[in-house]
Amino acid sequence: MNASHKPQSKSTIYDIAREVRASPSTVSAALGDNWKKRRISEDTVERIRAVAARQGYTPNLQARGLRHARSGLVALILPHHDNKYFSSLSESFAREARNRGLCPVIVATHRDPAEESATVRDLLSYAIDQLFIVAAHDPDAISQICHDAQLRHVFIDHPSRHAPSVITDNREGARGLSNLILASMPLPPGTGLAGVYFLGGDADQFATGDRIEGFREAMRQSSQPWDENQIIPSTYDPGKTRESLVTLHATLGGLPSGLLVNSITCFEGVLDFLGGLPEDEINRCVFGCYDYDPLAALLRFPVHMVRQRHRALIQTAYELLDTPEPAKLTVIAPEFYPARLRSSSLGT
Amino acid sequence: MNASHKPQSKSTIYDIAREVRASPSTVSAALGDNWKKRRISEDTVERIRAVAARQGYTPNLQARGLRHARSGLVALILPHHDNKYFSSLSESFAREARNRGLCPVIVATHRDPAEESATVRDLLSYAIDQLFIVAAHDPDAISQICHDAQLRHVFIDHPSRHAPSVITDNREGARGLSNLILASMPLPPGTGLAGVYFLGGDADQFATGDRIEGFREAMRQSSQPWDENQIIPSTYDPGKTRESLVTLHATLGGLPSGLLVNSITCFEGVLDFLGGLPEDEINRCVFGCYDYDPLAALLRFPVHMVRQRHRALIQTAYELLDTPEPAKLTVIAPEFYPARLRSSSLGT
DNA sequence: TTGACTTGCACAATCGATGGTGCTTACATA
DNA sequence: TATGTAAGCACCATCGATTGTGCAAGTCAA
Question: Which of residues 276 through 295 in chain B touch A, CB cutoff 8 A?
């Protein structure tokens, strides 16, 4: 790159046109790939391209977007960035966007419904081409906005009846996770301190609802005594989750025999509390975490995990947008990561 | 929102103008906040705003951006999304952007220099207003591009001589972390299996260079014997890091007495290998990780950590852009998270 | 009644890229 | 020479919002 030219703000097709003594439309055509149809001579095309390269020309995508009513932007709306599951979704989303020559815009809305719909409107204003919404609060409202603006969109985690959606099979995920917990509880049924508990998440939220359902099924099928009070959806906040666990611990006089923690975020709160407990007490409880984190696989105590296939979710979402099938719901099975049990790594 | 109107693509000031029987320029002024200067009557303003609200009008930001040569977009370029440190930066970056009424665009370039500069050009084409670059490969080249386009930008983690930059005090961070490791090594100096090792990261990269320097200082000041071969920057890839550790383990016939793992990403690779080792062997090695992850605080073995203050880094970066001081370098001290030692949580 | 202002708005140009519609040449054919 | 036809390009409107400027109607004082 010859970087020693004048610091003119940014070169346009008009600058190039002036230098080559051609019209802006000719320049535009020459830089695109339809110059044959416009019968621009190959010679002219090459002169124009040379000058464009020398000037370091890049098209003004706002102008192009204005003309085409498109922008080349695809957006992903999700609750948070700093969460392993969501950031994995981001990573996959961005990779695929760039494969398709699109520019990914990822916005976190902090589980705030107002921020969520404001963001949708904002993104609409930028004329984004496609919208992916993860764990929407009110999918139908968003669908309405998008339909009015004729914006192609797809939901992940929380489906909409009015648009294509992809979700993990949360019910099966939670059921399988619950069964993993039940299967590795050291004490015979009924002997445990206080059964298995479901902790964390937002009961109003779609995914959590399904997971609770899966938990219920597993509990019903097990020989464990249980009741609805063992379900404690304390929100997704680590602090709140910690408090719930503190309360539970005080009430029971110890940890329950099993604990299914809904989301890695809540799990952080749980860990924080566990840090203050004696090792042997922790070891009497079997843990499960909905969502996967590689670090969790080597904690001081075994943790069963479920991993949502972020890659598959994103791929499927893109494909649903490619083929204009309306309002189709795709369900993707999660993967299970049973804990390496303590005994197996004590080796010999 | 009255959602039952015709699905016209998107309302513009022209649509509003037609309905209110006013000119587009009047509508534009009325919707902005300079209608007083343009002497639009308050009555007219209110009529226009009412209609705008009813039509669900949102401004076309591409058109506005085209006119203003600005877009309202601020961009953050970083290596990856799915890394606790980077995603925390994202989170802080996005929050502050929205506080300022800007739309955050976050792009991962996977530590690929070509993708990095291509992305910068891409973003330039979208007329972004400000650019934040994390862990740039070639900051000076990026600065050049940005200067030519008169784009305000700031570097994080890897400074540029030609633009404002914010970094963590990596040398001190690594020195302190090394000292934490040295201080908690159970065996007297020289008795350990093979001293303390530095593993992971990219030696060509600025942050890693500084961290290695800090490691060297700590080692020199300690009574531990050591040499340069104890520094093994294997890249940031978990797989590669694992391989390096496998080799080291084979060469030494066991783990070293101390291991400073450079980045949480590499730490994943280390964990994967450790998972197959007997517990007592792991316990003979003291671990440190550059970067913090809440989960790492409760692993089966103690891990000292250093946390970069992502919030402060981002805040400072924004402030550096606010006040046009050129090429100022700000250094921010990291926080130390010494491991809760094993004994302390065995409690009584 | 007339000039001097003010009020309240409309007109038109502009940002950069694009694509439809011409308008010149050159060359060929009758 | 007149006519046809292609090649090679220029001109102009357009996307939607913004802003400098102009212009009519109303108000006021002399």
Answer: 276-279, 293-295
H or E segment to which residue A112 belongs: none
Give dist(CA A273, CA A260) in Å, integer. Answer: 15
Interhelix angle A42-55/A24-31, rounded to 10 degrees, is 90
DSSP category for residue B340: P
**Which of the 67-106 residues on chain B come under 7 Å of nucleic strand C at their beta carbon?**
67, 69
Closest nucleotide C1' to the C-alpha of B29 = D18
Query: Shortest CB distance from B66 goes to which of A1, A66, A83?
Result: A66
One domain for residues A189 and A243: yes
Cβ–Cβ under 8 Å, residues B236 and B201 = yes
Domain boundary among A163, A180, A209: A163
The Cα A233–Cα A213 span in angstroms is: 13
Asked if the structure places residue A265 within a domain, the reply is: yes
Give the distance from CA A138 to its chain's centroid.
16
Residue closest to B40 by CA, chosen among B60, B56, B23: B23
| Residue at A92: amino acid letter | S
pLDDT at B187: 59
CA-wise closest residue to B119 among A105, A169, A223: A105
- Expressed as residue numbers, the domain containing A25 is 13-59
Q: Considering just the CA atoms, what is the radius of gyration of chain B in Å?
A: 27
Domain assignment present for residue B315? The answer is no
What gap in Å lies between CA B92 and CA B156, rounded to an integer?
13
> Which residues on chain A are in Cβ contact (under 8 Å) with B149?
9-10
Is pTM beyond 0.85? Reply is yes
* Torsion-angle region of A150 (φ positive above 0: left; ψ -120 to 50: alpha; else: beta): left
**Contact status of A6 with chain B (Cβ, < 8 Å):** no
Residue in chain B nearest A341 by alpha carbon: B275
Is there a single domain that holds both residue A239 and residue A130?
A: no
pLDDT digits (tens, 9 = 90+) for A2-53: 433 444 578 999 999 999 999 999 999 999 998 999 999 999 999 999 999 9
Cross-chain residue pair B81–A62, CB shorter than 8 Å? no
A143 touches chain B (CB under 8 A): no
Distances (CA, A) of B234 to A305, B188, B202: 29, 29, 7
Q: By the CB < 8 Å criterion, does B106 face chain A?
A: yes
Rg (CA), chain A: 27
Please check whether residues A116 and A140 belong to one and the same domain. Answer: yes
Higher pLDDT, B154 or B284: B154
**Residues 6 or more apart whose Cβ sits within 8 Å of residue B13:** B24, B27, B28, B31, B57, B59
Please state the domain count of chain A.
Answer: 3
Interface check for B80 against chain A (CB to CB < 8 A): the answer is yes
Per-residue pLDDT, A1: 40
Nearest residue: Cα versus C1' of D7: A39
Instruction: Summarize pLDDT for B39-80 with one digit per residue, the tens.
Output: 999 999 999 999 999 999 999 999 999 999 999 999 999 999
